[in-house]
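Bug #77: duplicate submission created two jobs. Keeping one. Sequence:
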Amino acid sequence: MKLFLIIATGSGIGGVLRYAMQSYVYKLYPFSFPLGTFLVNITGCFLIGVFFALTEKNLLSSEIKLFLITGICGGFTTFSSFSYDNIILLRAGNYFYFFLYTFGSVLLGLLATYLGILLIKIL
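Kept job's structure:
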């Protein structure tokens, strides 16, 4: 139960940070390109890389790792988790799964979003 609370706390903080950053960027640069989301995703990827490297050097406990990577980064952006998963696949030499996961996630994610919109429009 303790681990769930650690992750939930981090996720809440990450979600609030995502909203704050996206809102701030949109107020500064209100144009069509989703710059706020783009910057959140790139920032999240950078942070998850930093936290991962700190974990590999045994500088973070397993609880802090869960708080930062699964909680904060997961709540801030799931794109960072997607990037992290892909790095793990590449480092393990699982190139087939890397390509399957990368292209499958992007293509099926877009298709699923479109189908969800289409479903609601039909109903």
